[in-house]
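Researcher: I'm preparing a figure for a lab meeting and need a structural model of a single chain. I don't have an experimental structure, so a prediction will have to do for now. The sequence is pasted below. Please return the structure as tokens so I can convert it later.
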Amino acid sequence: MFKAIMKGLNVLAVIHRRAGKDIFCLEAWVLRALQRIGTHVYLFPLYSQARSVVWRGMDYDGRPFINAIPTALISKKNEARMEIELFNGSRLILAGSNSYDSLMGTNPVTIIYSEFALHNPLARQYLNPIIIQNNGIEIINSTPRGMNHLFEVYNVVKDNPTYHVEHLSVEQTFKHDGTRIITTEDIKRAKELGMSEEMIRQEFMTDFSVGNLGAYYTREISDMEREGRVCILKPDPSLALHSVWDLGGTDATAGWLFQIDGKYINIVMMFHDTGRGLQYYLHQAESYRQSIRCVWGNHWMPHDVRQEHQGWEQTESRLTQARKAGWNFQVTPKVNFEDGIEAVRYMFPRVRIDKNNCALGLRGLREYQRLYKENQGVYSKKPLDNWATHIADAFRYLAVNYRRLYDTPQAPTKYKSNQ
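Model: Understood. Here is the structure written out token by token.
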């Protein structure tokens, strides 16, 4: 793969767990910075992971990963921003794709994605045009997570001559002495610790066909597709348009817009972005409502909406901001997580979702999954904190409020506008 990088090729490496993917990427990061003066970005799914894995992480021998960069090459190091300037003027930046818009203006010539299957899929869409314009390269490493955006990228680039693509299981990777990196005994021990056959196929055999293990709503979404409830929806101007949000300040924010027609909850639009203030989302939602010429119904925010400044453009609470702007938001009751998940499953048979306007939202629901405890070989009751979290949280708030207020789906109900 290093030869491919030296030739200026992009790299996609679908390789099994424990193969040293991030060690390779760390070395490639420095190699590229020496090869071409510019900004070279190393992205993890979350900013916190970039700090814990590379900036503060250690290899198997207890040596800090970051120390793999020879001190003779380093001109400056910024601990707070996780940036390194090399003697030749190149910049090395560690970041998370959960706030990919923060890279605006960095103008990278290299972008490395660690565990791409867990990244926000919008990050590459946003950043790839910059790489193309700069005649730079991308380096993607990951193990599979079902047929998600990693699978899609793999199929697009596997025959592209500008990409060096490797798809390797444990049977195809070896140490310098010729022995396998992960042996049959290693896999046997993993089974004894409770790792399932499906997890072994995914993590060690790099099998894309294994479903998204630990996902909360796999069966429910499959039922929706089989029954034709993932479709193109035409909003009804005679029905009220409702909204429900999970607001993350400078982090990702998600919102669903929906109508209730007496039989179905018709989800017609989903908003998702990062690093924007509340007014941006309210404006987007209002523009959509005007386009279908209906009235507003009810609006919900999460239970922590009354908290004051969390990185927003004002110091007052988000609830106060919204009401000043004319939005009569209600606060979603605080319900424990497990009950919220059950509320979603209860609601799913009544849901239809627009496959175009809500494509990213549907993908987020597919990829919302439990945290896997590798040392115990079991899934936690807690969700994995990834790009889909805000999308799924907003959907859970929808379910909680639906079950509380609309759980009598009979005749269509007319609403008075809150605005």
